[in-house]
């Protein structure tokens, strides 16, 4: 049978989602724990890969197994063998033609930035940080230029292996919650480091180093070498996946708060 699972993890303890030779990938921890419940090796396929230091409030993955277990066993049993910084939130049997990655219609991320003169202690590793005051209004205006289908080469990592830089941004938001600025993005898919590069450019807008028109020009020029540096991974969260309702999955999204 095929099982889908919803997953939450603290990315600072891992070297990204993908399996690593040293076993430090989120995928490694989950596959080993699920195998102990299933009594056989399993292979996980995720909706999207996250880089080292990036967190997930709701990652979705699936695996196939011949083991017959109650659905609660895939949650409680797996979590019993996992470190406390990764948890399976839910599990359900899905149709044979479901695929966590290829059945997804969109992915969502949030970047949480602490904007204060002093770096946070209790939130270390969980939020990004910028020490100078940021003007949120031009950041909001610039972010709206990302909506729709674009060539996002200006915000693409040089080592990105995606076959095309074209992506469709369904929604984008920049909101302020006290000392925190939260950037929210939803797209059909994302390029490697795309969000961290966008956030880096929006921070330049917020401090006045770029105006809204200059941000738009970066997008149109499609040249990564002209864009500001990549922002730290600490504040980036994979927050959900959009699937057709016909798959009858539990809630596949979450938000930072």
Protein architecture, described:
Its EC number is 5.4.99.12. It holds the Pfam family PseudoU_synth_1. Formation of pseudouridine at positions 38, 39 and 40 in the anticodon stem and loop of transfer RNAs. The chain has 257 residues and is an alpha+beta fold. It has two domains: 2-103, 2-Layer Sandwich (Alpha-Beta Plaits), CATH 3.30.70.580; 106-237, 2-Layer Sandwich (Alpha-Beta Plaits), CATH 3.30.70. Helices cover 21% and strands 28% of the residues. The protein contains five helices and ten strands. The protein has helices at residues 26-38, 71-80, 136-143, 194-206, 212-221, and strands at 2-9, 45-46, 55-64, 86-94, 106-115, 128-130, 148-151, 166-177, 180-187, 236-242. Strands 1, 2, 3, 4, 5, 6, 7, 8, 9 and 10 form a ten-stranded mixed β-sheet that branches. Strand 8 (166-177) and strand 9 form a beta hairpin. Helix 3 (136-143) crosses helix 4.
Broad structural category: alpha+beta
Radius of gyration using CA atoms only: 19 Å
Give the DSSP E fraction (strand runs of 2 or more residues). Answer: 25-35%
Low-confidence stretches: none
Per CATH, the architecture of the largest domain is 2-Layer Sandwich
Continuous helix count = 5
CATH topology of the largest domain: Alpha-Beta Plaits
Regarding CATH, which class of the largest domain?
Answer: Alpha Beta
Q: From N to C, what is the helix and strand string?
A: EHEEHEEEHEEEHHE
Mean pLDDT: 96
Separation of the first and last Cα atoms: 36 Å
**Overall strand count:** 10
